[in-house]
Specification:
It is built from 10 helices and 6 strands, in the order βαααααβαβαβαβαβα. It is of the alpha/beta class and 219 residues long. Helix 1 crosses helix 4. The longest helix is centred in the middle third of the chain and has 19 residues. It binds 1,6-di-O-phosphono-beta-D-glucopyranose and magnesium ion.
Length: 219
C-alpha cells in the first residue's frame, strides 16, 4: 500500500527551476563565468552553496574567493531569485499537481516536500498549496543533500512511512538517485533518457498524467 508521496519542488510542483537558471546565469556573467542550459541541468536539485562551487569550478575560479565572498555571491543570487518569486501565483502550479494533492488528502496518504530549497515554504504559500502537505523537510536538518537519500528518508520518517512503500517524484537526475538510494519507487518528470539512466522506475514528460492509481501501481 502507498504510505506517502514525497515531492521535489523546483521542476515538479512549479517552474521555479527557470528562475534559478536566470538568477545563477546573471551571477555567473557578473563574475566572468557564462554558462548554458546544459550546464544548468547539472545544478538542478543541488544546494545553493554547492551550485556556486560548481559554477566557480567551471570557470576555474574556485580558489579566487574567500568563504565570506562566496557567501556574499550566494546571497546576491538568492536576493535576485527571491525577487523573481513575487511573480508566482496559484496558476503557476504545474498541471495535475493540485488534483493529485487533493486526491492524496482525500485518501489520507501524506504528501511531503523533500526540496533542497530553503525557499520552499514561501513558494508553497504563494501557490496556495501549503496546507495540502503534511510535512516540508528543511534542507538544513539533514547531513547530505541530493544525490544522498537524506531528504527523502527524513520525509518518510516524519510521517511514519516505510520508505519501501513510498514514491518520490523528481525532475533532476541527482534527485532520482536520492530517491532510489532511499529505497523508494521513483517517478521522473522530463527527459526520459537521463532520468531512466539515473534509475527512474517510470518517466512522464510532465505532471499532467500523475494520479494516485498510477503511483500505487509502482509498488
Ligand atoms: P535555494 P529542488 C533545488 O530545489 C533547486 O533545484 C536547485 O536549483 C537550488 O539550488 C536548490 O533547490 C536550493 O534552493 O537557493 O532556494 O535554497 O529541485 O530540490 O526542489
Ligand atoms: Mg527539482
Amino acid at each position: 500500500k502507498l504510505e506517502a508521496v514525497i515531492f521535489d519542488l523546483d521542476g515538479v510542483i512549479t517552474d521555479t527551476a527557470e528562475y534559478h537558471y536566470v538568477a545563477w546565469k546573471q551571477l555567473g556573467e557578473s563574475i566572468g563565468i557564462p554558462f548554458d542550459r546544459a550546464f544548468n541541468e547539472t545544478l538542478k536539485g543541488i544546494s545553493r552553496g554547492e551550485s556556486l562551487e560548481r559554477i566557480l569550478r567551471l570557470g576555474g575560479k574556485e580558489n579566487d574567493y574567500t568563504a565570506e565572498e562566496k557567501a556574499e555571491l550566494a546571497r546576491q543570487k538568492n536576493e535576485h531569485y527571491v525577487s523573481l518569486l513575487v511573480n508566482l501565483t496559484p496558476a503557476d502550479t504545474y498541471p495535475g499537481i493540485t488534483e493529485l494533492l487533493s486526491e492524496l488528502n482525500a485518501q489520507g496518504i501524506p504528501a511531503v516536500i523533500a526540496s533542497a530549497s530553503k525557499n520552499a515554504p514561501q513558494i508553497l504559500r504563494s501557490l496556495e498549496i501549503d496546507k495540502l502537505f503534511r510535512y516540508v523537510v528543511h534542507p538544513d536538518s539533514v547531513k547530505q543533500g541530493k544525490p544522498a537519500p537524506d531528504l527523502f528518508l527524513r520525509g518518510a520518517e516524519e510521517v511514519g512511512a516505510n520508505p519501501q512503500h513510498c514514491v518520490g517524484i523528481e525532475d533532476a537526475t541527482a534527485g532520482i538517485e536520492a530517491i532510489k538510494a532511499a529505497g523508494m519507487k521513483a517517478v521522473g518528470i522530463g527527459e526520459a533518457e537521463a532520468l531512466k539512466a539515473a534509475g527512474a522506475d517510470i518517466v512522464l514528460p510532465n505532471t499532467a498524467g500523475l494520479n494516485v492509481e498510477l503511483l500505487s501501481s509502482l509498488l
